[in-house]
Amino acid sequence: xxFGKKQGPAxxxxxxxxxxxxxxxxxxxxxxxxxxxxxxxxxLGRSLAANPAMATLPVSLLIVGNAVSTIIASWTMARVGxxxxxxxxxxxxxxxxxxxxxxxxxxxxxxxxxxxxxxxCAAAFSQQYRFAATECVGAAAAPKAISIVxxxxxxGAFLGPGLMSWGEAWVAGAPFGGSFAAxxxxxxxxxxxxxxxxxMTPSAEEETTGGARPLRVIVRGxxxxxxxTGGATGWGVMTVLMTAAPLAMHIVDGYSLAATAAVIQAHVxxxxxxxxxxxxxxxxxxxxxxxxxxxxxxxxxxxxxxxxRHMLHYGLAMVALGVGWNFLYxxxxxxxxxxxxxxxxxxxxxxxxxxxxxxxxxxxxxxxRGTGAVATACCxxx
Length: 382
Fold this sequence. Notes:
By secondary structure, the chain is mostly helical.
């Protein structure tokens, strides 16, 4: 979108605000816990679980916690406001990281699973930072505000996996214990900052329409079906590979934790960097074509993953997976008022087929064979 000479300075002035700075910081520290679990959850689960087939259960529960808490997070903020609601979410994340820290000290697999699902619950709050960003600015500046907040995820992409790599031996006898202790501090810093958020205004759409449309009207629409299918496909395929890849790299193929963390960092960057241009691509080519491009990239992920298990294959597969997820993720923005419904669909999708495949504890090459059909399932609805 191009802005006129008079509009440009006004938009820039809106983007330099305390609220956006707080949301940017909270986004950075909020995703740190998520990607820390993604990086080492399966590895730590393998060492603590009595049954190796359950090694990836902590990471699967991370996704489940996120999905089931989507509606709860929205309900909480509707009643206590953005500032206190977001602070509650960050505090929940600190509690989850503390549970994971205790799990490393006591070697308790169940406690690790509890910490993972709690961190997933906290992520349901942090995923709404971008929507809060649109309430801090005018409609014309909203896309740029979202991009600014998402930049915090890039910092978290380095900090989360980095903490797991650097802090593996910080606490004697408790692998990754020091890492989780540092993540507790990150969440608490985020909670303190979020309490300083200033009151926000309702979105322009809610003001003009008078609120959300009835759910029965939304679910009948073609755009809703496309949004749910695309979002579920992107999240589902990523759940399989993101869960299995660290375990396969570090445990099965013997790559160092630093190398594993580097691949996860590249994957996370690929997830969020395209957000800076995804909106422009959708405006130019249409959401349907961008989503088809996302499906094609998921296909490239399968090709790279099945081609071999060299570091290059892992890297290419995870980068293609990240960009493909990003393109399909934008399906949520095809039509308004779909966030809460996508969350419900995500619950059904993430808690059945894909975590069940991941729990087998097999290398990604096994899981990849089960996702080829899913990667093309949304084409018929585009």
